[in-house]
Amino acid sequence: MCSSGMADEALFEFLHMEIVSHVYKEQQSGKGEMDNKDRAVCVSVLEGMGFRVGQGLIERLTRDSPSFKDELDIMKFICKDFWTKVFRRQIDNLRTNHQGTYVLQDNKFALLTQLSSGKQYLEQAPKYLAFSCGMVRGALSNIGLDSVVTAEVSVMPSCKFQVVVQKL
Amino acid sequence: MCSSGMADEALFEFLHMEIVSHVYKEQQSGKGEMDNKDRAVCVSVLEGMGFRVGQGLIERLTRDSPSFKDELDIMKFICKDFWTKVFRRQIDNLRTNHQGTYVLQDNKFALLTQLSSGKQYLEQAPKYLAFSCGMVRGALSNIGLDSVVTAEVSVMPSCKFQVVVQKL
């Protein structure tokens, strides 16, 4: 039996929303406003959770996969197989400078589509990207690639993830 | 295209595990051991997150559904459609006293299958049930039923959820 996927997607999105709001609420509790340091703590907590989830997921996904040819081959796997499993769509565009930097563009990023496209939400966007950055970093780490992963939004709900692979 | 569902299931399970461990870690931080009050706070936080996720999910699931005939009809919907969307299987057994109490038995509860079946894990089981209890309560609440939802494990990974509908 093939499930529609709609409510499953929703399950991940709702759960992610709850985590984000919980982590920010707990960091803020008792304080008036959050400062940059508070926000950095939240981003780091969410990134860490994403990292572990990404590690676990890629382990299942690559269990029966042949080994990868090269770094680009790994990145393509992340853009297609990994992204589809998590976000139900492939990355729209992958670019690289062939020196270890990759830009993955998702024109309709699932975790942003629930946010409105107003300017005040654009400012909020980074808090909804930390978990996913961690997830990509965790997945890559499990395949043996250390990386730094960041993300930026210019026009909602489009999102660019930048992966910089750390050479030994 | 029909996805296998394996990694999607895993996504929810891994995310749930991260939430549970985060909530317990933050409550414990700085203390030596957790007391019953600390544990109650954790259960309540997880239950609340589940409640909101359940509300959101049932809203999507019932959007195109005809209205329900009666209370039993609602419970059957939870056991079949709702459970399948969240846990990829139906409830194995539904019992009721026809006075507002329902027992839903899942013989292979997804959020317990990753735990080992040793006795020390049986003691840990309650912390993996709070979120799901909240989710059922949230779903029912959105259909107009106030309820108290508890869960117990006797033999892993089998689990019984008890729903007591609150009459006005």
Automatic annotation (TrEMBL), chains A, B:
Protein location: Endoplasmic reticulum; Golgi apparatus, cis-Golgi network
Lineage: superkingdom: Eukaryota
Main localization of the protein described in the UniProt heading: endoplasmic reticulum
GO BP: endoplasmic reticulum to Golgi vesicle-mediated transport; nervous system development
TM annotation in the entry: none
Family according to the record: Belongs to the TRAPP small subunits family. BET3 subfamily.
UniProt-listed PANTHER family: TRAFFICKING PROTEIN PARTICLE COMPLEX 6B-LIKE (PTHR12817:SF7), TRAFFICKING PROTEIN PARTICLE COMPLEX SUBUNIT 6B (PTHR12817)
Name by which UniProt lists this protein: Trafficking protein particle complex subunit 6B
Organism whose genome encodes this protein: Solea senegalensis
